[in-house]
Design brief:
Length: about 100
């Protein structure tokens, strides 16, 4: 896989902000077929930091429905993969500078 296909976008939420402050861990949405070695290489190349640990999670798909004038429309949100990347002590990633 190309490194640009591995990292899709950083996840910015309350949980990811707490993790980055306390444990130096950052969350990214990554490609479904990417593995931990590719994720580590992509983060090190794009952000110029040393990666200590990579944990991955596949979030399952969810069914969604909404009520409209035409009736109930139901569908599914696709599953996606997240990676929690722990960076070496004393280093950090500036996610807000790239927005």
């Amino acid at each position: 896989m190309k490194l640009a296909e591995v990292l899709i976008k950083p996840i910015i939420s309350e949980k990811s902000n707490k993790l980055s402050e306390k444990r130096n861990t950052y969350a990214f949405r990554v490609g479904r077929k990417s593995n931990k070695l590719e994720i580590k290489k992509a983060v090190e190349e794009f952000y110029g930091v040393n990666v200590v640990n990579v944990n991955t999670v596949v979030a399952p798909s969810k069914s969604k429905s909404r009520f409209t004038k035409a009736g109930v429309i139901s569908g599914r949100k696709p599953a996606f993969k997240k990676a929690y990347v722990t960076v070496a002590e004393g280093e950090n990633i500036d996610l807000y500078g790239s927005l």
